[in-house]
Amino acid sequence: MMKIHISNIHNAALSDRVKLQHKLAEAGHALGMYELGIFSYPVDGDTPEQLSTRLDGLVSSLEHGDRVILQLPTGNGREFEEKLAWRIQTYTGHYPSLLISENLGEEYLPMLRESDSILADKRWIFEDLKQMLGREASEKLSFYYVDNESTNLEASLCLSKVLEKYTVAKKRKDEIQIAFALTDKDGTYSSRVGVAMLSTMKHTPQPVCFHILLDDTVDEVNRRRLTNIAKENGARVEFHLVDKKLFTELAQEDYLKRFSLAGLYRLLIPQLLPNLKRILYLDADIMVTCDLSDRDRIILCVRMNSSLK
């Protein structure tokens, strides 16, 4: 089970920055987060071996799949923080989210670029980071506040949003990826895809993401219906528009005439979805009667039934 940790600085003078980090850590505890304690100490006195041992001790409670919110600056210097962030990634598989409570110099830019989630605790820090990150800011930088007059981060709201983001990310990581290909000149074939989707969700307990390869013969009404079918059953739909002109001439070849245009669209799956390691393609006019998350059973079925390709 994924655990979420938030760092907190100890053994440091109670400056405004340290007090704020304590406050944010307390807000995280109230939401069920675990503390990743970091002690302030003279890092420069460590040999590389001593620092490595110290970092291993700091992250020893982390497990693969956990997520960490690292509050910066820690007071131990950027080099220490950079090595800690990479050690966190080694243990969990994820670079930490960064929660910034003080102005950071350009030397922090590599860390900011590496993280996929950055939170600012004051509006002016948010604006500075936005300028520093440029186009990347819209993808990863967040600032949560109660109203337009607020200048300081609202701790509970901020960390609740982070929890929500991690939960969605984990859910999507566990999704079964399923593809359909669809053309629908008369507007009736989309309903068959809907039936296949419903039967899939009925028998598959894991979250499902349906990738529907379609052309301009599938109208907005049917797209909306398919989206609602998925949404009402806790699944997602992603539509991938295909230019049918790519296959119109090819489909006239004698050896391909037995395939519909939609049947040829599936050849584009590797190009359209290059980041997916595994996806299951299904014909649109089928009824699913088994759990599609049972990979061994699916592979056995494919091997025994030559009609399934």
Description:
The chain is of the alpha/beta class. It folds into two domains: about 5-170, Rossmann fold; about 175-305, Spore Coat Polysaccharide Biosynthesis Protein SpsA, Chain A. It has 13 helices and ten strands. The chain has a six-stranded parallel beta sheet, sandwiched between helices. A four-stranded parallel beta sheet has the order 9-8-7-10. Strand 8 (about 210-215), helix 9 (about 220-230) and strand 9 form a beta-alpha-beta unit. Helix 1 (about 15-30) packs across helix 7 (about 155-175), helix 2 packs across helix 3 (about 80-90) and helix 8 (about 190-205) runs parallel beside helix 9 (about 220-230). The chain is elongated. InterPro entries: Glyco_trans_8, Gtf3_N, Nucleotide-diphossugar_trans. This is Glucosyltransferase 3-like N-terminal domain-containing protein. It comes from Lactobacillus equicursoris. GO terms for molecular function: glycosyltransferase activity.
Number of domains: 2
- Name the CATH architecture of the largest domain: 3-Layer(aba) Sandwich
What is Rg? 25 Å
The H-level CATH homologous superfamily of the largest domain, spelled out, is: Glycogen Phosphorylase B
Low-pLDDT residue spans:
145-152, 299-309
Question: What's the CATH first level of the largest domain?
Answer: Alpha Beta
What is the number of E strands? 10
Distance between the termini: 35 Å
In this structure, how is the largest beta sheet organized?
A: 6 strands, parallel
Per the CATH scheme, the topology name of the largest domain is Rossmann fold
Total of DSSP H or I helical runs spanning 4+ residues: 13
User: Could you say which structural class the secondary elements and strand pairing correspond to?
Assistant: alpha/beta
User: How large is the share of residues in beta strands?
Assistant: 15-25%
